[in-house]
């Protein structure tokens, strides 16, 4: 089963957050398949002759209603930056904003809503090995991003109905060209000399998901929601199906960027406690100054524990399987970094 091209301009789709990393890759794929694509976002970050851009705030339902006439399917992939540290904004966008998206979908007769959720909605900092969708939502999420992603997913899945089919896709550790989070943060930390250390023993395995596989899953799910109503109302893990040692993956990126791989080990619980103290300090000064630390209990836990997931449910219920293997994905990602283009071009198959 693969994603299908459609009769050109026979279906109108809306990508909320379409100017972002996942959103833009999704928009480009949908256009290539013949969809009429609209983008709703706070900002416009690119031009495309086949795309109609609507600038607005999904927290303002009137803004949303303006772009939803005759829309068949909505892809909701808007979020404040996961590494920002603003609880109010997360609650406002991921929870109140998602309520607006659902209300607008019902008002405008949208048939399908695909939410880009996150595998971390079941992660509270303990090891997860081959975790499937039966795992409960994290009772104590490590940050307000994750807390609001849980609330968001619950809202979307409980809205599933005869008139609006909803589905939540849970990618994990998305990377690829134009990623604004993982690679740039890694490069910034490396440039500051902060990537000499391995947090913990370095034996924790994690999932990373190449952007083309995430986009493929979104289109596949959207194309099957109507034919397979049984998949509606469900959440599905979406990964590369190739769990890798976190520090091996990071070392590949760092060496690809021209930096040395981390080599000195730091005790995991010591760094976790340090991160906890940093967060207390950030909270104390927050009335006076907003600080966005990279060292948080969430990022330390992600760097020091197992967190990889099973995609068997997506494979069996809507035939998902990754279209780009991890090795190729890493090379393509490094090749996409302008200053590294020539160095990696020859390696890409
Ligand atoms: N990047 C990852 O590793 C990852 C992993 C799993 C899930 N996700 C999920 O994928 C989705 C996309 O993430 P991304 O990495 O592309 O993020 P991103 O920051 O690149 O894009 C998010 C987009 O949402 C827009 N947005 C934010 N607030 C808005 C508002 N109030 N109104 C309208 N638009 C608004 C932003 O302008 C931005 O263009 C998110 O739902 C995220 O939770 C991301
Ligand atoms: C050498 C350094 C330790 C490198 C630091 C890399 C770090 C910036 C990334 C490593 C794992 C990434 C990650 C997300 C953001 C960037 C990292 C922390 C993530 C929190 C982004 C939001 C997603 O929804 C996420 C929670 C998910 O489940 O995919 C991400 C988890 C991994």
Helicity range: 25-40%
Strand-residue proportion: 15-25%
For CATH, the homologous superfamily of the domain at 12-180 and 209-240 and 310-324 is named as: NAD(P)-binding Rossmann-like Domain
Number of helices: 12
What is the CATH class name of the domain at 12-180 and 209-240 and 310-324? Alpha Beta
Q: What gross morphology would you assign?
A: globular
Distance, first to last CA:
24 Å
Structural class: alpha/beta
Q: Strands across the major sheet, in which order?
A: 3-2-1-4-5-7-12
| CATH architectural category of the domain at 12-180 and 209-240 and 310-324 | 3-Layer(aba) Sandwich
Uncertain spans, ≥5 residues at pLDDT below 50?
A: 344-349
Average residue pLDDT: 94
How would you spell out the order of helices and strands?
EHEEHEHEEHEEHEEEHEEHEHHEHHH
Q: How many runs of DSSP E, i.e. beta strands?
A: 15
- CATH topology value of the domain at 12-180 and 209-240 and 310-324: Rossmann fold
Task: Write a structural description.
- The chain has 349 residues and is of the alpha/beta class.
- The longest helix is centred in the first third of the chain and has 22 residues, at 87-108.
- It has helices at residues 21-32, 61-65, 87-108, 144-158, 182-191, 211-224, 246-256, 268-285, 297-304, 312-318, 326-335, 341-345, and strands spanning 12-16, 36-41, 51-55, 73-76, 112-116, 128-131, 165-171, 174-175, 197-199, 205-206, 209-210, 234-238, 244-245, 264-266, 307-309.
- It has a 7-stranded parallel β-sheet with strand order 3-2-1-4-5-7-12, with helices on both faces.
- It contains 12 helices and 15 strands.
- It has a domain at 12-180 and 209-240 and 310-324: Rossmann fold.
- It binds nicotinamide-adenine-dinucleotide and the ligand CC(C)CCC[C@@H](C)[C@H]1CC[C@H]2C3=C(CC[C@]12C)[C@@]1(C)CC[C@H](O)[C@@](C)(C(=O)O)[C@@H]1CC3.
- Residues 17, 19-23, 41-43, 57-59, 77-81, 93, 97, 116, 118, 149, 171, 173-174, 180-181 line the site of nicotinamide-adenine-dinucleotide.
């Amino acid at each position: 089963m693969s994603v299908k091209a459609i009769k050109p301009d026979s279906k109108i789709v809306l990508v909320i957050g379409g100017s972002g990393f996942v959103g833009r890759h999704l928009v480009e794929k949908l256009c290539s398949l013949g969809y009429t694509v609209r983008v709703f976002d706070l900002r416009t970050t690119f031009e495309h002759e086949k795309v109609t851009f609507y600038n607005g705030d999904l927290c303002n339902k009137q803004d949303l209603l303006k772009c939803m006439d005759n829309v068949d399917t909505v892809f909701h992939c808007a979020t404040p930056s996961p590494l920002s540290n603003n609880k109010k904004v997360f609650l406002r966008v991921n929870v109140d904003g998602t309520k607006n998206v659902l209300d607008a979908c019902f008002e405008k007769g949208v048939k399908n809503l695909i939410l880009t959720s996150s595998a971390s909605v079941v992660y509270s900092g303990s090891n997860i090995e081959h975790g499937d969708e039966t795992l409960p939502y994290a009772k104590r999420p490590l940050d307000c991003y994750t807390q609001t992603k849980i609330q968001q997913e619950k809202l979307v899945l409980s809205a599933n109905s005869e008139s609006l089919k909803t589905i939540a896709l849970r990618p994990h550790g998305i990377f690829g060209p134009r990623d604004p989070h993982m690679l740039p943060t890694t490069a910034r930390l490396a440039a500051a000399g902060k990537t000499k250390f391995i947090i913990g023993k370095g034996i924790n395995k994690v999932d990373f998901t190449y952007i083309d596989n995430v986009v493929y899953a979104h289109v596949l799910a959207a194309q099957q929601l109507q034919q397979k109503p049984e998949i509606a109302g469900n959440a599905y893990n979406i990964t590369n199906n190739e769990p890798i040692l976190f520090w091996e993956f990071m070392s590949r990126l760092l060496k690809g960027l021209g930096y040395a791989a981390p080599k000195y080990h730091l005790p995991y619980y010591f760094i976790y406690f340090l991160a906890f103290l940093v967060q207390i300090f950030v909270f104390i000064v927050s009335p006076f100054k907003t600080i966005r630390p990279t060292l948080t209990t969430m990022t330390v836990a992600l760097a020091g524990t197992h967190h990889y997931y099973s995609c068997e449910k997506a494979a069996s219920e809507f035939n998902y399987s990754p279209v780009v293997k991890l090795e190729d994905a890493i090379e393509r990602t490094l090749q996409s970094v302008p200053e590294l283009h020539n160095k990696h071009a020859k390696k890409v198959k």
